[in-house]
Design goal:
Layout lengths: L2 E3 L7 H16 L2 H12 L17 H19 L77 H8 L17 H6 L12 H9 L13 H19 L35 H4 L6 E3 L1
Parallel strand pairs: 1-2
Length: 288
C-alpha cells in the first residue's frame, strides 16, 4: 500500500518528533553519511568529460528520486510511520517560518560563523556531527536569505515556468539548455551569481551554508527541498500526460554527450534501476 508524503507545514507535533528521531537514528547508524558520500561522488559538473548522473543532466530528477527513496527506506526501518515531508518554498518563505522551528530543522546560523545553534541538528546538541564534507567544519551551517547579499526564494511564477515546459529535456542535455522541464526546474541559467540561480538551485543558495555544494545532503532540509522538487515532476507528468523522460536513446559515438548522460532505459549509478522504472511511483508513495 502506498504511503503519503506530507507538507511539512501540516505535520502534527508528534509527526515532527517521529521524523526527527528517525533521522537522528539513521545518522547514528552511519546510513545517513553513506547517502552524503553517494551524492558527493555523483555530483559531477558538466565541465568534466565523464558520466553525469546527479546534476546538470536529464537524470537529475530520477537520480534524486531514488536517493530520497533510499533515505525514506532507512527512516521507515526505524519507524514505519515516518515519510519524508516536503517544504513548499513558494509558500513558507520566511527564515522564521516552517521548517525552521526548534522542533523540526532548527533555525538560521549565527552571524559569526553561520553555525546552527538551535534545534535537534545543532552540533552542540550532540547528535549531528558532519563527517563527510568539502571542509573540515564539523557543524551544520546556514545563511538563510544570504544576509550579506540577500536573495528571495523562487516564486509561484518561477515554478510555473518549469511546469509549463511541454518537453522533459532537450539536447545537449546539460546545464546550458534553455528549454525543457528538467533544467528549468533544476535551475541552471545564464549570467553570473544570483541572476543565474533558478528554482531548485536558487533554494540551495537561499539556505546557504553546507547546502551550497556537493555535500549539501548534510543539511536535513535537503530532503524536504528535494521532496518538493520531486512533487513537481509528478505535477509535470499530470499536466503533460504521455510525455516521458528524455533522451530515450543514449547519444551516439559522434555526439559530444556520448557516455555522459543516462538514457531512459539505462541504469542509474550506483543503483540497479532505470529512469523509466522511476517514472511511476504511485504504488510506493503519493503526495498530500
Amino acid at each position: 500500500m502506498a504511503y503519503t508524503r506530507k507538507n511539512a507545514s501540516l505535520l502534527t507535533p508528534t509527526e515532527r518528533r517521529r521524523f526527527v528521531n528517525a533521522l537522528l537514528e539513521v545518522k547514528r547508524r552511519g546510513e545517513y553519511d553513506e547517502l552524503v558520500r553517494t551524492h558527493v561522488q555523483y555530483a559531477v559538473p558538466d565541465g568534466e568529460r565523464r558520466l553525469r548522473a546527479a546534476h546538470m543532466a536529464p537524470s537529475f530528477l530520477p537520480w534524486h528520486r531514488k536517493l530520497l527513496l533510499e533515505l525514506e527506506g532507512a527512516l521507515r526501518r526505524v519507524d514505519a510511520s515516518v515519510t519524508v515531508p516536503y517544504w513548499d518554498w513558494t509558500r513558507d518563505r520566511a527564515a522564521d517560518s516552517l521548517p525552521w522551528t526548534d522542533d523540526l530543522l532548527g533555525g538560521n546560523g549565527r552571524r559569526s560563523d553561520r553555525q546552527v545553534m538551535t534545534g535537534p541538528f545543532a552540533y552542540r546538541a550532540g547528535h549531528w556531527k558532519i563527517t563527510v564534507g568539502v571542509t573540515d567544519v564539523q557543524y551544520l551551517t546556514r545563511d538563510l536569505g544570504r544576509a550579506a547579499d540577500p536573495i528571495q526564494l523562487p516564486t509561484d511564477q518561477a515554478l510555473e515556468s518549469a511546469l509549463a515546459e511541454p518537453v522533459y529535456d532537450v539536447a545537449p542535455w546539460d546545464s546550458t539548455v534553455t528549454r525543457g522541464f528538467r533544467n528549468t526546474l533544476e535551475g541552471w541559467g545564464r549570467g553570473h551569481g544570483s541572476a543565474s540561480w533558478r528554482n531548485h538551485n536558487r533554494v540551495h543558495h537561499w539556505v546557504g551554508g553546507v547546502m551550497v555544494g556537493a555535500a549539501s545532503v548534510n543539511d536535513p532540509v535537503f530532503w524536504l527541498h528535494h521532496a518538493f522538487v520531486d512533487l513537481q515532476w509528478t505535477r509535470w507528468q499530470q499536466r503533460h500526460p504521455g510525455n516521458h523522460y528524455l533522451p530515450a536513446e543514449p547519444p551516439g559515438p559522434g555526439d559530444a554527450q556520448h557516455g555522459r548522460v543516462v538514457a531512459r532505459y539505462e541504469k542509474l549509478p550506483p543503483w540497479d534501476v532505470t529512469p523509466d522504472e522511476l517514472e511511476d511511483v504511485t504504488s510506493i508513495y503519493r503526495y498530500e
